[in-house]
Amino acid sequence: MRRRRRRGRRLPLALAVSLCVAGTVWLTGCERADAPGGAASGSGSPRISTKASAPASATVPASPVAEASDAGTAPLGEANKPAMGRSSGVFYEIFVRSYSDSDGDGIGDLQGVTDKLDYLQQLGIKGIWLMPINPSPSYHGYDVTDYYTVNPEYGTVDDLKTLLAEAHDRGIQVIMDLVLNHTSSRHPWFVDSAGGERSVKRDWYKWASDGADVSALGPWGQAVWHRGPSGGSYLGVFSDGMPDLNLDSPDVRAELIRIGKYWLGLGLDGYRLDAAKHVYEDFQSSSADPATSQQNVAWWQQFRQGVPESGREPYLVGEVWDTTAVVGPFLDKALDSALNFEAAKLVLDAVKTGDASSFDSVLARQLAYYRKVSGGGFVDAPFLGNHDQNRVMSELGGDVGRAKLAAALLLTMPGNPFLYYGEEIGMKGVKPDERIREPMLWKKDRKSGGQTSWESPSSNADTPSVEEQLADPDSLLSRYRLLIGWRNEEPALGDGGFAPYEVEADGILAFARVSASAALLVVHNLTGETRTVDLHAVGASSVGGVRFATDSESTAFADGKLRLPPYGTAILQ
Predict the structure, then answer these.
(1) pLDDT for the residue 473
(2) Which residues contact 178 (CB under 8 A, 6 or more apart)?
(3) Which residues, in sequence order, are bridge partners of residue 91?
(4) pLDDT in tens, 14-47
(5) Contact 50, 7 (CB under 8 A)
(6) CA-derived radius of gyration, the chain
(7) How far apart are CA 203 and CA 216, in angstroms?
(8) b or e along 310-331 (b: 16 or more beta carbons within 10 Å of the residue's beta carbon)?
(9) Which of 133, 300, 429, 558 could make an SS bond with 436 (beta carbons 3.0 to 4.6 A apart)?
(10) pTM of structure
(11) What are the residue numbers of the active site?
């Protein structure tokens, strides 16, 4: 389908760079030379097998987002707007149980993650997000029984300290999942709370008062009131095994801030905050109430202010699985980033259909809104998939060409991209959750190299391992290494502004990435056929040539015409 011409969206590259260098930052995220750096790293956002499905990523609302949709259309007089915070690189989400086993018991552990740091460094990763590592009765760990130690199946606090030291030596930051919406029903706090109305920690959880309507449903229509072991009904939005903490209790708030300070004091760099919008989103009747969202944001603002340890500002990335208008306020002095579910949908839709007619305008409008509500302090956190979603390769029907294109789209977007373990080798998996959290494949024999065996890799019988793909220059893993390498070499791909760039060619997506020192034009071929686009026809006569190309032998640029191979990407300057 031919992309419709959009008036006012054309951006000559020479003009783009002159605007940024001059300090005019109407390009979304375009950074002034004197702009302060932003957050330090990035992380992801999961939901667990016992939780109900989150709402599908929605389209950008007309308001209030439209009021901030100045990317690509704002008058030049809107100068000196604050920029998006500085990107710190690509983050890698690890389910420790499935990643690497160092002691032969079949279960991944922290020492196993340490053993794979050289692999991650060679891949170009700059940050790690560890899914829950606290003690828990479940395999996934999202129901915590002790916030101050490590799951013994994963190792010890000393093992974590070793991992942190070794990661930092390689320039890799580490954040971990922090689950503060609820605990396990086996947590000593809840065991005490459930003992009766005179229990010391009775008000640490939400118990129904006499006469309360315990038939009220939760945000997605689920039962949320559960009978306590000694009588009474307690609130558990996700399940009866996950009772909700009462954030109206000053003692609970103080304790959660102490927990946040504790792990930062051990050297952790930040947190991925689970279920960030559900602290107060308890009931179907109040989930859409703006006051509910304001309560959630106010808590995370307090947490943000309270947890810095020894002058170290943590990187906070939250799971706020909702529309852009709902996500935005969480970026106001609370979270540095929110995992961008909308961007994930945009990328996969474009790759599946070959049509990205709304991709650049929707993303630019979204980023402009986030910049406005955060005062320029946010860092975007795009991703393709995570531990709560069907794996990307399964969504793409096993098509390696399309998987390479999806990777290229992700890794040319602003912010801190998040990569789910095994995505770089094309691991497959469709829910239930155990099938999308299968063991990482290290060796062809499926036995050595740290292979875990707690679960069978049944969805990946024909998926080439890391060992096999490292030896193949045309593999998906090799493509990820190439793309992440570009990003690490050219800061504008992380920190630069983003603006739509109109082209007159079927199946082609182009956008500008511009910083104070560089102007780049990113062009993707979304089709399985070779495409040629005349860049001079849309005002890019200042483009000097191709800097990066996924297939340099089949990519050509002459007389303003760019030829791209199937699913190919080129970056010009």
Answers:
(1) 98
(2) 259, 260, 263, 271, 272, 273, 274
(3) 127, 418
(4) 544 444 433 333 355 554 333 333 333 333 322 2
(5) no
(6) 24
(7) 20
(8) eeeebbbbbbbbbbbbbbbbbb
(9) 429
(10) 0.89
(11) 274, 319
